[in-house]
Amino acid sequence: MTSATPAGTAAASPSHTAAEIASQPDCWRRAADALPRHADALPRRGERVAVVGCGTSWFMAQAYAALREGGGHGTTDAFAASEFPPGREYDRILAISRSGTTTEVLDLLGHARAAGVPTTAVTADPATPVMALADAVAVLDFADERSVVQTRFATSVLALLRAHLEAEGARPDGVRPLARAVLDAERAVTAPLPAELCGAEQFTFLGRGWTYGLALEAGLKMREAAGAWTEAYPAMEYRHGPISIAAPGRVTWVFGPAPAGLAEDITRAGALLVAESGDAATESDPLAELVRAQRLAVAVAWSRGADPDRPRHLTRSVVLGDRQRA
């Protein structure tokens, strides 16, 4: 795929979101370096674990759950915090909350404490209620953000959890070491984005296993930052209906290896395919590909006259009143 200067970015002013996206390789290194301080708080081998969050944190929970099970570290389920199944038994609940104030997460931690279920929280802010409600807390304050659109905190949480799995000898087959992901991300924050991506009408993101959570997150970033028309699916499900949206001027982006024959089907439909070549020596880590998708979301926002630092209808943390909890 040829590269070009992204449309609409030449006159764009710097933003908190863009700066935080670019800081991710350093944040991931710091997350790995912080592992010795937080390892005791993280899931133990063999524990049955539920990972919960809201929005972006939920998608990172999905990615981690697939990585942990795939590496043989233990049964792991991921839930939106508001959809945690009552009565299901787990050895530990791992909650992800950048702000530490998200209502659904705090409510769930309170219920877990009353039921005697051990809990761990990963947050960016040590001065928030989550500190008192979780039994153990890992604070990644170096990855906190000013932006409403969350990027580096979520990926730094996943970097910490990947580093933990590596340290436990539970990195799944086919998943690169985190150190390789960091190097790939350094390239991803500077590589030009193809102009045809920035001018596309619609974006569909696909993934398999742990990368499905990344696909969901890429779609969310495009909606939040740019108000763009985006969808996300498991890669094998794409041909069961969603491929009908593929057309010239639209993009299908695959995180990780594309299923056999999918590239040909997408090309035949006329959509622009973004996918790795299949050469393990040259392809990029899917987490680094998410960085590229984040950058694209900012570029598309600027090209459409939107401000990625001020997304519509969103605030940095969702805190619900009593009537909204019901």
Structural class: alpha/beta
Order of SSEs: HHHEHEEHEHEHHHEHEEHEHH
* Main CATH class of the largest domain: Alpha Beta
CATH fold label of the largest domain: Rossmann fold
Helix proportion = 40-55%
Described by the principal axes of the CA atoms, the overall outline is: globular
**What summary fits the major beta sheet?**
5 strands, parallel
Number of separate strands:
9
Number of domains: 2
User: How much of the polypeptide forms β-strand, as a percent range?
Assistant: 5-15%
Report the radius of gyration as a whole number of Å: 19 Å
Note poorly predicted spans: 1-13
Summarize the model shown.
This protein has about 325 residues and is α/β, with parallel strands linked by helices. It is about 40% helix and about 15% strand. Helix 10 runs parallel beside helix 12.
Describe the structure.
The protein is 40% helix and 14% strand. It is α/β, with parallel strands linked by helices and 326 residues long. The protein has 2 domains: 18-175, 3-Layer(aba) Sandwich (Rossmann fold), CATH 3.40.50; 183-303, Rossmann fold (3-Layer(aba) Sandwich), CATH 3.40.50.10490. The strands form 2 sheets. A 5-stranded parallel β-sheet has the order 2-1-3-4-5, sandwiched between helices. A 4-stranded parallel β-sheet has the order 7-6-8-9, sandwiched between helices. Strand 3 (92-97), helix 5 and strand 4 (119-123) form a beta-alpha-beta unit. Residues 1-13 have low confidence and may be disordered.
